[in-house]
Amino acid sequence: MRRLLDCIYTAAGVLAAVFMIGVLVCITLSIAVRQVSMHIPGLDAYAGYCMAAAGFLALAYTFKKGEHIRVTLLLASLQPRARIRLDAFALLIATIIAANLAWFSCKLVLDSHAYHDISTGEDATALWIPQLSMAIGTVIFFIALLDETICRFRGQPERHLQEAPPHE
């Protein structure tokens, strides 16, 4: 199960990187076609869709790698037992918030599909398509938070701290 979850987090991170390249391609193409007095409708919108996809799909990967910003000043001042309890409590709250975010992101995709919602820009893209990356990203982030919360309640420390090379 651990390997499957790690593969999902890594795949989401790789997909986020692909969408970052998509942002680069869209912006570069937009600049290039402007230089030759051409226009490709919706290119700016697609850059935005790619940027949103990259952000949401990267959530779980960066969280599991310990790259999210955390306020550790309070945690560092506590005794080890209290630190673990506060960390577990914070993870539990974050998991509840992420569950709501995932739920409403998925609901947004379903509603956009049901109502045939399209973007108001030149591209007239069916909005459920770019919103799908948000829903997938938030669901994977929820799974990552739930995974970490369960590990913490079992008394396991953060995995990225266990895997860190020793400082010399």
Can you walk through the features of this model?
This protein is mostly helical and 168 residues long. It has one domain (2-162). The protein has six helices and no strands. Residues 163-168 have low confidence and may be disordered.
Task: Give descriptors for this structure.
disordered C terminus, mainly alpha, 0% strand, 75% helix, 168 residues
Entry summary:
By secondary structure, the protein is mostly helical. The protein has 6 helices and no strands.
- Count of domains: 1
Indicate the percent of residues in helices: over 70%
Cα shape: elongated
Count of DSSP strands: 0
Secondary-structure blueprint:
Layout: H1 2-35, H2 43-64, H3 73-77, H4 80-114, H5 128-153, H6 159-162
